[in-house]
Design brief:
There is one protein chain. By secondary structure, the protein is an alpha/beta fold. It folds into 2 domains: 92 residues, no CATH class; 129 residues, HUPs (Rossmann fold, 3-Layer(aba) Sandwich). The strands form 2 sheets. Strands 5-4-1-6-7 form a 5-stranded parallel beta sheet. The chain has a two-stranded antiparallel ribbon with strand order 2-3. The chain starts with a helix and ends with a helix.
């Protein structure tokens, strides 16, 4: 095997392993499923390059085969452009900080485990705490309901965490009925209006999630800025790929 094929074969093999790592947590979603399948197939293509090219050559000999290969190649090119464009918007939205604007911080909920924040929720809370501790007049809405496998609501868990870190309870407003991002933002908008809080918001969530959160905020008529929590590197590919599907689904169908 030449180096030109060996290097991409190793890269795709490593990506395959990275997409499988979240299963140990366990995390399984469309992101690591699609990522593992695609990277695994690409690794096989480069490791088995000679039989693969023979197979493609055999298909190309037939008119129907040529039509199929051209269509598949065109579709792959379109999808590559789409995911690159989505990724570009995701990266841009990660860094839209409030920069002194008068806003209400809205922390989007995430899984509660054993009555405390999960690893990813803790990262969001740490990001929010850093901003709130430096901007002592900014109010915050903690947003998230209680799932069947959660001992308390995500909002209550987040409030307890922030109070324990020294954030005044008077600054914290709870929205504990939502079950998804769309409801997080819709119900938080009501909480802000009912309590006379600034109508513009600063969303605290993982960086990969900021684009879709901002799209949903605009759907609710909200001007949203962003503070992004850092996602662990070994989880980022899984959630990044999942967001491709989420953003594309929203763009086509609207919704959550």
């Amino acid at each position: 095997m030449s180096w030109l094929r060996f290097i991409p074969a190793i890269i795709f093999t490593l990506l395959f392993v990275v997409f499988l790592l979240p299963l140990s947590v366990p995390i399984f979603n469309l992101g690591n499923a699609a990522g593992a399948v695609i990277s695994g197939l690409m690794a096989l293509v480069f490791f088995l390059w000679t039989p693969f090219t023979r197979l493609i050559g055999g298909i190309w000999q037939h008119t129907g085969g040529r039509i199929f290969l051209c269509a598949a190649g065109g579709l792959a090119a379109v999808l590559l452009v789409v995911v690159c464009v989505i990724s570009g918007f995701m990266i841009h939205e990660m860094n839209d900080s409030p920069d002194g604007a008068e806003t209400t911080v809205v922390i989007l909920g995430c899984q509660v485990r054993d009555g405390g924040p999960s690893y990813m929720l803790r990262r969001r809370l740490e990001a929010a705490y850093g901003y709130l501790s430096q901007n002592e007049d900014v109010p915050v809405i903690v947003s998230g309901g209680q799932g069947e496998d959660e001992a308390i609501s995500e909002a209550q868990c987040m409030r307890d965490y922030l109070v324990g870190k020294g954030i005044s309870p008077d600054r914290i407003y709870m929205e504990d009925r939502s079950a998804d991002t769309e409801e997080n933002l819709r119900f938080s908008k009501r909480v802000a209006a009912e309590n006379g809080l600034p109508g513009d918001i600063t969303i605290v969530t993982d960086g990969f999630h900021q684009l879709r959160a901002d799209m949903l905020a605009r759907q609710e008529g909200l001007r949203a800025y962003n503070i992004s929590a850092r996602t662990p590197a070994w989880l980022l590919p899984t959630y990044w790929v999942r967001e491709w599907f989420g953003v594309a689904f929203y763009a086509v169908f609207g919704g959550k």
